[in-house]
Specification:
Pfam families (chains A, B, C, D): ThuA
Number of helices of chain A: 7
Organism (chains A, B, C, D): Paenibacillus residui
Structural class of chain A: alpha/beta
Radius of gyration of chain A: 19 Å
Number of strands of chain A: 10
Protein name (chains A, B, C, D): ThuA domain-containing protein
Oligomer: homotetramer
Shape of chain A: globular
Largest sheet of chain A: 9 strands, mixed
Order of helices and strands of chain A: EHHHEHEHEHEEEEEHE
Strand content of chain A: 25-35%
Largest interface: A-B, 52 and 52 residues
CATH superfamily of one domain in chain A: Class I glutamine amidotransferase (GATase) domain
CATH architecture of one domain in chain A: 3-Layer(aba) Sandwich
Chain lengths: 246, 246, 246, 246
């Protein structure tokens, strides 16, 4: 069934164009590497900031089951109208996978209701992501941990609501910890925040990281439920006494 | 210690002025009745929509430990700037008690990250609020349930994130249920949503309802923690190998 | 993939043999009706209390992905050794669906760590199970609620730990509410408690009830993870300074 | 009000008697040091394994608001009858603070419903406990983290149910992480698991550790609620139609 899951990978796609070191790692952009990783299982397309409507037209979103989001230096350039469009789609059931610096994206902050702030250090710390919820579908096929030789450090406190499920916790060489794999539900939509993926490290080539992202896409895919009904609700399901005050 | 808790009760205060039936129940406004209920234990002040800055100046908020919020017909008139101010205060630790139709207030929706939509019916249903978390401080002194002879019905699905703790669930005469007492944490702030309180019923005179609101104020009062540090974090706490790529 | 899920339906199978009214509803036992309901999608077998080892031999459990449990009048007759065997399998990843009066089974109480007590009344109350988590896989295909014309009432407080996810809440004609669909995780295993199914009502013929049970089996099926490693863990993953005190 | 909280500190008290290195750190036992730490604020008594009924008579427990538990080498010697007694008291509202190796105590495993297993290494790792829920009463007055120069390492996976609230996460020098401060509710009782405190290190003299334990006692103290009613519940609160089948 996962062959039918339609994934849109959204990437800011600025670092790769401006910075040679990043381009050397991701010559066609982070989205291209993620598309290659997910394309073997899902129906994948990509979208980037500088496309019209950031590549996220009504049509594209209506055909998207799970949206993957990578952004960093240009969060502010994402138009509020598009953020609202993505937001409504998540509440209606679209899955959302937020990667790394996407913690500060407008869409993630809007869905969390918090600042999503954290500590950070670009010093190439070793990172070890420990599984704290073995048996969870998102860590299927992952052993006890994933090790990344060099990554940007993110440290607590991470200002998010208590996750519905905490799946991974990171250890950093420099002495910090971080809740690295966090599940949330908003409306009908499932959201997974996954920490790794700084643009100056080849993280999205790592097999474990790719596996977790693929697992999370499968987990976040909507179940095809109809929309709940809201608003005025008359008549009552059970007879109620006439009370005059109505 | 609760004698030192500084409470600001915010009320839209429009229904009472426009509608005689409401004014008959709350002649000085809902805020006045809540102030009377909470004033025996806490240091209480009130604020209303039509005051300058809605009565929620920087100074007032800085002196507020817990903010109680009742609004309904004029959610849109609350200025975004004031909403942002309240929001920042909650993240910094101020408690927030959201009552009844406040589910649709800008501040509650912003903190939840969802639509906060629900079903409703104004037919004077009997409501029975069952305690599902006995031993929780918010239901201290409440028996097994509170019964309200007439209330507006709110029905599921209530579009909120899964509460951190669910304390009360309502039964309605007309056949619906509702998660009526919900705890959340956002940043350093504790938030309690409490369902009852339609303006055409004398709900805020009910002893059980008043007790729950007072309990929730005590529960939501900040613990005086210092603010976490966010942002660039150098140097590392542990020595890390020089990796060149920094 | 769900065609490969191996389900064992365990039924106490006493009421049906002793009580003609129950036998008229479930002539071959509750397990037979559930087996018929689940057999179209899963590889189903059944087991009952009075079989050797209650039908739950090591071999049977090793070949079970999800165990469905219905018991009531003879909880005490379930041998502790078999309970321990089921318990270890759940921690190792087997799914467990606990139905109705199974709330008082030894295995459920052992996994919850609480009394699992509740209120009850056999008066044929109408029950309406409201979906409070639309979009959850367990309520896929269910609309806003399921209605059962007559059921035993179960009322709060239900003495369980706060569920990891609350999916359904029941309304009862006589004035009570109940958390009717509750998700838990213990070790690697997923557990779903589902309230309806008193033996004197034809509840397991209801299409909605059957659909929820089938959905929950799919949701609870293990993901095939390897077992985490516990115990003494030497050497460290990172070099640590010799500290003499070891 | 916390001056009225009655605390019983239970200690196995075997390591201190058998092992000179431990006795040098805790000459009168771990319980004596904890009693000294908590005695400035609470009404404290102590109890140990080798007292009659392990010092936990019905009378002592009935006069205990919060029980602190440290055990390690003799978990099996704790009588099941006493475990059951403590268990019933927790469900009835007594707070329970489980320290360090108490993760494997009978009472903690019974309340959790899981194996409570973990990884461990006695190598004097540096431990840094990071606050992941600032503003929580249990970390009041604690800054961003507590640092312990030498401690036993505990590593994930820690086989517990998802905590109701996760307050602290540990970083270990040797490369592991651990959920070190975990809140649970069982029945009416609040439970806090707090990791540090290996007998060969002077951990319970650490100011931050002592402060967290004191905070947790205050947080876990019962709120004096009456007991919920369970069992047969007749008549109904609302009139129900006579249905014959009763």
């Amino acid at each position: 069934m996962s062959g039918n899951v339609r994934v849109t990978i959204w990437n800011e796609y600025r670092h790769e164009l401006k910075d040679e070191a990043v381009r050397n790692i991701y010559p066609q952009g982070i989205h291209a590497v993620l598309a290659e990783a997910l394309g073997t299982e899902f129906a994948v397309r990509t979208a980037t900031l500088d496309e019209p409507e950031h590549g996220l037209t009504e049509e594209v979103l209506n055909e998207t089951d799970v949206l993957v989001w990578w952004g960093h230096m240009a969060h502010k350039e994402v138009q509020d109208e598009i953020v609202e469009r993505v937001y409504q789609r998540v509440l209606a059931g679209m899955g959302l996978i937020v990667l790394h610096s996407g913690h500060f994206s407008k869409i993630f902050k809007k869905l969390m209701g918090t600042s999503c702030d954290l500590k950070w250090r670009e010093a190439g710390d070793k990172e070890r992501l420990w599984v704290v919820s073995p048996g969870h579908p998102i860590v299927q096929g992952i052993g006890e941990y994933i090790e990344l030789e060099q990554e940007e450090m993110y440290g607590e406190h991470f200002d998010i609501p208590e996750p519905d499920e905490l799946v991974l916790v990171s250890w950093f060489e420099g002495g910090e910890v971080f809740r690295s794999g966090c599940c949330f539900k908003r409306g009908l939509g499932r959201i997974f925040y996954f920490r790794p993926g700084h643009e100056t490290h080849p993280t999205y080539y790592n097999e474990g990281v790719r596996r977790i992202i693929a697992n999370s896409v499968r987990w976040a895919a909507p179940t095809g439920d109809s929309k709940p009904k809201y608003g005025r609700y008359i008549p009552s399901l059970e007879p109620i006494k006439d009370k005059g005050s109505v």
